[in-house]
């Protein structure tokens, strides 16, 4: 078998931007994120207390 004849590569075209994209004159400055409230709160690392198993009926019960 003979290989198919080589085709010329397609001419260079600029890449299309995604639909709805807008070219901006400068990058957008992102404000620094504020720390989450309670991020530095002390954590409790005491003994674990076993809890009784929960069922859907227990969760649905209104008291």
Describe the structure.
The protein has 63 residues and is largely without helices or strands. The chain has one helix at residues 56-60. The protein contains 1 helix and no strands.
Produce the secondary structure layout.
Layout: H1 56-60
Question: Which tags fit this structure?
Answer:
little secondary structure; 1 helix; 63 residues; elongated
Low-pLDDT regions = none
Report the structural category: little secondary structure
Biggest β-sheet, characterized?
none
How many H/I helical runs? 1
Please give the radius of gyration in angstroms.
31 Å
Instruction: Tell the overall outline.
Output: elongated
- Helical content stands at under 10%
SSE series: H
Overall pLDDT confidence? 78
Number of strands: 0
